[in-house]
Design goal:
5-stranded mixed sheet; 881 residues; alpha+beta; 31 strands; binds ligand BES; binds zinc ion; 8-stranded mixed sheet
Length: 881
């Protein structure tokens, strides 16, 4: 394991590589504990001066080194486990052959070459390739790879690597065999992959828009073939969509996906050989929920889309990570919007953005979409790089319009294909096609923090004008005390009495393109002319900018928008704002020893939504979900008391369930299933609404609602309805809960991905007994600290999805997470560091909890052999502002 060293890496220090690698020939002889790797690199100097050759390594043992075929004398190089240096290499192209030995079975970090059960697999992003061989392990060194894999045939009957298979055969009399793969596209080392093992394969084909036939293969553990259909279908739809939406065609003869059960992340876009966490491949109606089907579709698409945004055009350095990740998240979100409901997708994406990115942006780990400094790059695969990164791309499209956006993307693909590019080069493409100056826009990449926009509106009946005063501020974030104004695209409408939008014209004659104002100054006033009645402003429609909007809109106006706004996002937002205002009042009242308000107005507004037959069920289901505990904590922002938040929310849910019981029961019955399960968006939406009705009814703890949930649990013929009923029951301390949890485990004990759902539900129970239950479950035979999915299902679920019990007033939740981080850190630092980030919001807590959370962080910080991953997180979390 790497322990902390002094290596802040800075964007400003970027220098082009001294040496380029034209081709890599890898020969890998698989063995459980001593895999031999021979790498032959064709190196050439990049530019004139002959610089030393310094290759990265990590935990490597060098067993051989030749230069142009001759053994290199020991005095001409220095090899440590972390580096191979040739101080005076020949000042011309040469061939270097490096032999190393690695132990995949001892690789518990799951980075580099490791084993997942019987399977050999690799994970090289961001810096895992250096754990396989010495190499300039940086994304701007792009080479053509040929990979020969050799293994015991019995142990690894299937041998895969990037590209097309060009040879294969037996090694006579040895029980061993080999396969040779060639990838003609130059790529950085982080996209290298190889796989070996006993794998079953599901096959299909795809004909690209230019008529080329591509073989599609999904490799899974034997016996799981019947759970690949949805992933395969998603892949084909993603391939078609990239052709129509972006003109991008697949470029190799074969596209492979391998599902493994031990994986640090969700999935990885290795060229032609995506490797997936099996959780994001395997699905059948009996084993996966609608949510699982939806995520699988999105992740399959995301990794496939990287083939162009990430692989054909990669990142110059890791500071440019958003260039591939933000852009590809934007693309997968657009894909999902086209496959499903655009409104529902947008609301879900914004909920995710606020829940993760806004929280990150408001705390000690805040950083710009393009950071300028890191100590551990693995800690920068963040909500900011991914989700805010996607919002920045969306804003570009909003600012220049869809046609120019498409032209800009086309230009980007033409101009930078085969290159390792930068954010500047990307944005320049959009400036070039639109003729717009995007200089100020670049601040979205460089300034951290969520901008706050205060909007004040006023109607002037005599002048028939509406004045909109906008003022923006960007809060201070670590290392960035002062900020400049942002260019904020604000989509808006002025809604008239009849619910229709009034025509938008600025009084000074300036045009408003596509309903979007751009705020560029710290404060700016826009006056709209020809406004014949007092309008209700609907601002930041579709969440056109990732900002916190504070507007002087009355409760009556919000109810009006909830009923009439033609922008579905803002209709939902108006109801959220109403609910948030009520809940924040109630939290304050509860903390002051008072009683919460009942919220009759909210129930009426919600009742009207539920009764509106024109709305999509999935959309109504989102309307029924009140702001979460974390949403409220974020709004409160300081001196947060998670118990009061929980109590206020539970009380409001009970009161709404009670007031709307009639229509909720009606809906529940009306939406009941007929016919076999189908995971399509419409059917899933109906189930989502039905289960949301059930959950709100059960919040009242009425006996009939609990009984209904218990009955649904027993009668369900698909995992979605069974899990939904179980989740509802799990929130209430009723005898039906224990029975159903017991039954669920008995049914699914032999399926780890389903047992994960069982672990997660128990970790999320908002009761004081939960912490002990979670601790006990760590000793359950189904649990293992070695498997990231198990750890995330139980421990991360407790820390991230159970605000109340994680934030126990006695600090035992924080202590448990600190203990677990210290236990995980030596084995798998990436996993430990992610878990540790659960403590990042400690400063917003009320004083008692704040001190306890800080003490837990300090205890982690005091561990002398802490990994670089965890020590980076803990040091930033504790740093004085
Ligand atoms: N390139 C990443 C996977 C990755 C992340 C590798 C961090 C190494 C370090 C991949 O494209 C990705 O972003 N995966 C996401 C899912 C995606 C749908 C956002 C993941 O793994 O969570
Ligand atoms: Zn990605």
């Amino acid at each position: 394991m790497r322990t902390e060293d002094a290596r802040p890496v800075r964007l400003e220090d970027y220098r082009p590589p001294d040496w380029l690698v034209e081709t890599v020939e890898l020969e890998v002889s698989l063995h459980p504990t001593a895999t031999r790797v021979r790498a032959t690199l064709m190196l050439k100097p990049n530019g004139a001066a002959a610089a030393p050759l310094i290759l990265d390594g990590e935990e490597l043992t060098l067993t051989g080194l030749t230069l142009d075929g001759a053994a290199l004398p020991p005095e001409q190089y220095v090899a440590t486990t972390e580096r191979l240096t040739i101080a005076q290499p020949p000042p011309r192209p040469f061939r270097l052959t490096i032999e190393t030995t690695v132990d995949p079975s001892a690789n518990t970090e799951l980075s580099g070459l490791y084993r997942s059960g019987a399977i050999y697999c690799t994970q090289c992003e961001a810096e895992g390739f250096r754990r396989i061989t010495y190499f300039p392990d940086r994304p701007d060194v792009m080479a053509v790879y040929t990979t020969r894999i050799e293994a015991e045939k019995a142990e690894a009957p299937v041998l895969l690597a990037n590209g097309n298979r060009i040879a294969a055969g037996e090694i006579a009399g040895s029980g061993r065999h080999f396969a040779v793969w060639h990838d003609p596209f130059p790529k950085p080392s982080y996209l290298f992959a190889l796989v070996g093992g006993p794998l079953a394969c599901v096959e299909d084909r795809f004909r690209t828009m230019s008529g080329r036939e591509v073989e599609l293969r999904i490799y899974v553990e034997p016996g799981k073939e019947d759970r690949c259909a949805h992933a395969m279908d998603s892949l084909k739809r993603a391939m078609r969509w990239d052709e129509t939406a972006f003109g991008r065609e697949y470029d190799l003869d074969v596209f492979m996906i391998v599902a493994v059960s031990d994986f640090n992340m969700g999935a990885m876009e290795n060229k032609g050989l995506n490797i997936f966490n099996d959780k994001y491949v395997l699905a059948s109606p009996a084993t996966a929920t609608d949510g699982d089907f939806e995520r699988i579709e999105a992740i399959i698409a995301h990794e496939y889309f990287h083939n162009w945004t990430g692989n054909r055009i990669t990142c110059r350095d890791w500071f440019q990570l958003c260039l591939k990740e933000g852009l590809t998240v934007f693309r997968d979100q657009e894909f999902s919007a086209d496959m499903r409901s655009r409104a529902v997708e947008r609301i879900s994406d914004v909920r995710g953005l606020r829940a993760h990115q806004f929280v990150e942006d408001a705390g000690p780990l805040a950083h710009p979409v393009r950071p300028t400094l890191y100590r551990e790059i693995n800690n920068f695969y963040t909500a900011t790089v991914y989700e805010k990164g996607a919002e920045v791309v969306r804003m570009l499209a909003t600012l220049i319009g869809p046609e120019s956006f498409r032209k800009g993307m086309d230009l980007y693909f033409v101009r930078h294909d085969g290159e390792a590019a930068t954010v500047e080069q990307f944005v320049q493409c959009f400036a070039d096609v639109s003729g717009k100056d995007l200089g100020q826009f670049m601040r979205w990449y460089s300034q951290a923090g969520t901008p706050e926009v205060v909007a004040t509106g006023g109607y002037d009946a005599r002048g028939r004008t509406y004045r909109l005063e906008l003022a923006q501020t960007v809060p201070a974030t670590p290392g960035q005390p002062l900020k400049e104004p942002m260019a904020i695209p604000l989509a808006l409408g002025l809604v008239g009495r009849d619910g229709r939008d009034l025509p938008l014209k600025l009084a000074d004659g300036r045009a408003i393109e596509r309903g979007v104002l751009t705020l560029t100054k710290a404060a700016e006033t826009f006056v709209f002319g020809d406004i014949g009645e007092p309008p209700v402003p609907s601002l930041n429609r579709g969440f056109s900018a990732p900002i916190k909007l504070v507007a002087n809109v009355s409760a009556d106006e919000l109810r009006f928008l909830t009923a009439h706004d033609r922008d579905p996002f803002n209709r939902w937002q108006a109801l959220q704002t109403l609910a948030t205002r009520l809940l924040l009042d109630n939290v304050a009242a509860l903390r002051a020893g008072g009683a919460p308000r009942e919220g009759g107005d909210l129930a009426a507004a919600l009742g009207a939504i539920v009764a509106d037959g024109a709305l999509e069920p999935a959309y109504v289901a989102l309307m029924l979900a009140l702001p979460g505990e974390a949403d409220l904590a974020r709004e409160i922002g300081r001196d947060v008391d998670p118990d009061a938040i929980f109590a206020a929310r539970a009380a409001l849910r009970a009161s709404l369930g009670d007031k709307l019981a009639g229509p909720l029961f009606d809906h529940y019955r009306r939406l009941s299933e007929s016919g076999p399960y189908s995971p399509d968006a419409i059917s899933a939406g109906r189930r989502a609404l039905r289960n949301a009705c059930l959950d709100l009814l059960a919040a009242t703890r009425r006996g009939d609602a609990i009984a209904l949930a218990a009955r649904q649990y027993q009668a369900a013929d698909n995992m979605t309805d069974r899990m939904a009923a179980l989740a509802t029951l799990s929130l209430h301390d009723v005898p039906e809960r224990a029975a159903a949890l017991h039954d669920f485990y008995a049914r699914h004990a032999d399926d780890p991905l389903i047992v994960d759902k069982w672990l997660t539900l128990q970790a999320a129970i908002p009761e004081p007994a939960t912490l002990d239950r979670v601790k006990a479950l760590t000793a359950h035979p189904a649990f293992s600290f070695a498997n990231p999915n198990r750890v995330r299902a139980l421990i991360n679920a407790f820390a991230f999805a159970n605000q109340k019990e994680f934030n126990r007033a006695d600090g035992a939740g924080y202590e448990f997470i600190a203990d677990t981080v210290l236990k995980l850190d030596p084995r798998n630092p990436q996993l430990a560091a992610r878990l540790l980030s659960a403590l990042k919001s400690w400063r917003v807590l009320e004083a008692g909890r704040r001190a306890l959370a800080q003490a837990a962080l300090r205890r982690v910080a005091g561990e002398p052999s802490l990994s670089r991953d965890s020590s980076d997180i803990v040091q930033r979390a504790l740093a004085e502002e």
